[in-house]
Amino acid sequence: MFRTLATSLVGASLGGLGAAMIGPGPHAKAKPFTLEESCKPENRASAADALLPLFQTNYDAKIKEAFASIGGPAMLTIGDGHSNGLFFNFMAHVNRTVVEQRVNLPVVNVALDTLGMKGCEATQQRLAATSPRSGFVSRLRTKLSGKKPQPTPVLKCVSVEGWLPSELSQTDQAAGVRGTGTCRYNMIIWTKPHILKSALQASSHGVLMIDTDVVVRQDILQESVQRLTEKKGASIVTGIENTRADRINTGTVFITPTGRMFTEIMDEWIKENSNYLNDDHGDQAALQAVFLTNHRLLQFAVTYGDSVGQCSRMARVATHYNCYANKLAPMKSQGDWDVATQTAREQLGLHNEKGFSKQSEWLQQKIESLEAGGEWIIPNTHFE
């Protein structure tokens, strides 16, 4: 009854942009993953649920280890090699904010494949090499001066390569692996609440799961903690869908393990997650369904309001570059698609021309809107 009601309500709330599919649930015996069968709309839920034992066995502990070592709130990003360009840009903005505003914004990036992990490690090495505290002399001067150390960017890389089937990395358009609502894209965003739950089980300070097409301008972690004080017992902060406070956006989701209802919210979100593998909004539609049908849990949720702008709208704390159908042209026209950075990625084998030309449409759309808003910057500029 709960799932049926959730499906009808969220379908209405999203304006008919995609009907949710109710999956058959986990099978007693997992079937081998194939694009032809597992990606059929009626099979996606059971195919995804069959991947959960592998996650718990091989990857859950790695994520927990990364977050347990951070002594405060942290950000969580998730992606594969196709999103390396956006990840580099995201980290450049985070680094700028850390240095210019002297705040701590640690990031744990969970890479879904080898190329994504290489991109994270390359960024990690660059941060270490250019950090103002990376040298012995610099650290000694800071210690002798008695001044509080300058915050520096913190990036941890966690690989979960092998969790998602390798078949999903194929770029055969006929197999349904390109664009929102398709098998590949929705399987990637399906991982988000599962990874977030593992992070929360290890963090005692709170985790902000954030998409890499979000440009951070101020201390979004402090803003997240502050938002929770607006409502007694609040446990979760979400973005809103293009100024609609009644529709959430999971491009920015902060949850604290100290809240009263965070465990139940996460459990209900995960319970619904696989049922929305055919919805363009995926994990977002699942969480929206939870709040539409469980008003008790909704009482413990607050939003970022206008502090995080959607659809490239400039905002005080951050801007989320969603909502765009074609972003590449305006990026190039305004000169914010950095050719030198693209060349460097190609030289590293992290983003070659072939991969760029065939990458998923949702990534190109995000990059194009970043460009249009003047937010696609050269990562090396802010690493120096």
UniProtKB/TrEMBL annotation:
Signal peptide stretch: 1-20
Stored InterPro entries: Nucl-diP-sugar_transferase, Nucleotide-diphossugar_trans
Keyword entries, A-Z: Signal
Segments forming domain Nucleotide-diphospho-sugar transferase: 170-291
Family from the record: Belongs to the glycosyltransferase 77 family.
Name assigned to this protein: Nucleotide-diphospho-sugar transferase domain-containing protein
Record organism: Prorocentrum cordatum
Upper lineage: Eukaryota, Sar, Alveolata, Dinophyceae, Prorocentrales
